[in-house]
User: What shape does this take?
Amino acid sequence: MDRKALAAAFPVTVPVLMGYLAIGMAFGFMLQAIGYNFIWAFFMSLTIYAGSGQYLGVTLLATAASLGTVALMTLLINFRHLVYGLSMLEKFRGMGWRKFYMIFSLTDETYALLSSAQAPVGVDPRNFYFAIALLDQSYWIIGSVIGAVAGALIPVDTKGIDFAMTALFVVIAVDQWKAYRKHLPALLGGAVTILFLIILGQFFGQQQMLIVSLGVIVLLLLILRDKLEEKEEEKC
Assistant: This one.
């Protein structure tokens, strides 16, 4: 691993470090509360690493959900990563075997960093992006293990603790709003989501509504891509 890239990536990932330790610990607490120790927390965070998907996994494990239900719910809650992946095609180009890990590790927070962070002069961008992804997952693993160990030693009421994931997502979203001058994609995404929540939410449920919304958002962004890029160039 390129030490220069790690040294450059660490300051960029500090906000995620603080957030992932907190919400990773929350996940560990929740997992321990339903009878799964820190070993489970470690391997779930190592092999699944899905943030909100792991929070959902605690509920599915607690209710002994079927494999089909687990697969469907995981697909629904992580469908948004299709959008993330499309926008990262150029950045991941030429990364070789690391590309597969970059795809696997593309959480909401890592995506936010990769979208805005620039490699310092003298640091290979591909090594820099890889270091960001690797550091972020290590924070999550450490947090979840600490939470599971602490949960075994200290009785904790986990009611409402899962809101920590939502809170971190809001913080990241606000930071991205401030970092970019063009807000049309965010406004478009919000408007489409609210529209389909009103139209489809009460009839088909929020999960199905989310898939439709994301599909429409991707389509609109692809159609408007050239215009959005032109406006950004004019501002520059």
Q: What stands out?
A: The chain has a mean pLDDT of 81. The chain has two domains: 3-179, 181-236. The longest helix spans residues 3-33. DSSP finds twelve helices and no strands in the chain.
